[in-house]
Amino acid sequence: LCPQVPELEKATVRIQQPERVMGIIQSIKEQGMNKLQVISDFDMTLSRFGCNGRRCPTSHNILDNSRVISEDGKKKLKDLLHYYYPIEIDPNRTLEEKCPLMVEWWTRAHELLSQQKIQKCDIAQIVRESDVMLRDGFNELFDQLHKYNVPLFIFSAGVGDILEEVIRQANVFYSNVNVVSNYMDFDDNGVLTHFKGPLIHTYNKNNSVLHGTEYFQQLSNRTSIILLGDSMGDLTMADGVPSVENILKIGFLNDKVEERRGKYLDAYDIVLESDETLDVVNGILRYIL
């Protein structure tokens, strides 16, 4: 496919239009690193979906499963998951149907969490005690982007305080990394009282969540985009970018692979099936930078 990016030959890689994809990669390379920005989801995109057959936690799961949540709280959060997650990934429901239900899920989950008297000073320990893992190759990804001054925008429907701590503990929270997510609000005693708005869920990662906009305005000359996601809702993450010349969308298909392959291949330029690494992304960046 492309001798310059041998990683694209991996068995996990699927590409519907190889010529088109090579053209985009070529254009991004020609435009140069000063024109590039990376926009990425966090949970199950930069972090691993699973390890040795066990699921890895999302930033919400890290909290939900931690010792700071009561047994009753855990049960209620689990009930919400079992009810709403099938709706979130149901290929037969429209976005119009899903959106209000996602708002309902996130709102109820955040209300439950806010009743748990979570302390700000517990967050680092909660993350340390969790099974969260970043994908193999995360060091190279963060290091290269930092070295070449390429902005990395992490747009997450997870919990900002938790995911920032994950990146911090991995020693890759560099100055070129910006996060937009759901952040906690603590009172003067450092106890969680509520989550700050606007609420970000799986299907509103777009212009409607306005606090990404000044960020993109400042980077208006960065017209080449590499977008990394793992759900259909991640495809709109670059909608706030004022002018896009080249965009390469890379999708991690982690779950229900056979069932969702067609949809992902239509939507993403490159699909990575059950691939727990960032090899392909790093290979493309190595070629571009």
Write the layout of secondary structure elements.
Blueprint (H helix, E strand, L loop, with lengths): L12 E2 L3 H14 L4 E5 L9 E2 L2 E2 L3 H6 L6 H19 L5 H20 L8 H6 L9 H10 L4 E8 H10 L7 E6 L1 E3 L5 E4 L17 H6 L5 E6 L16 E8 L3 H11 L2 E4 L5 H10 L1
Parallel strand pairs: 2-5, 2-9, 5-6, 9-10, 10-11
Antiparallel strand pairs: 1-11, 3-4, 7-8
Descriptive terms for the model:
289 residues; alpha/beta; Rossmann fold; DNA polymerase, domain 1; 2 domains; two-stranded antiparallel ribbon; magnesium ion binding
How would you concisely characterize the structure shown here?
This protein has ten helices and eleven strands. By secondary structure, it is an alpha/beta fold.
**Mean of residue pLDDT values:** 95
Low-confidence stretches: none
The percent range for strand residues is: 15-25%
Please estimate the helix content.
25-40%
> Can you tell me the number of structural domains?
2
Q: Number of helical segments?
A: 10
Strand count, sense and barrel status of the largest sheet are: 7 strands, mixed
CATH fold name of the largest domain: Rossmann fold
* CATH C-level label of the largest domain: Alpha Beta
Total count of strands: 11
Gross CATH architecture of the largest domain = 3-Layer(aba) Sandwich
Radius of gyration: 19 Å
Shape: globular
- Name the structural class: alpha/beta
Strand order of the largest sheet: 1-11-10-9-2-5-6
Element pattern in H and E: EHEEEHHHHHEHEEEHEEHEH
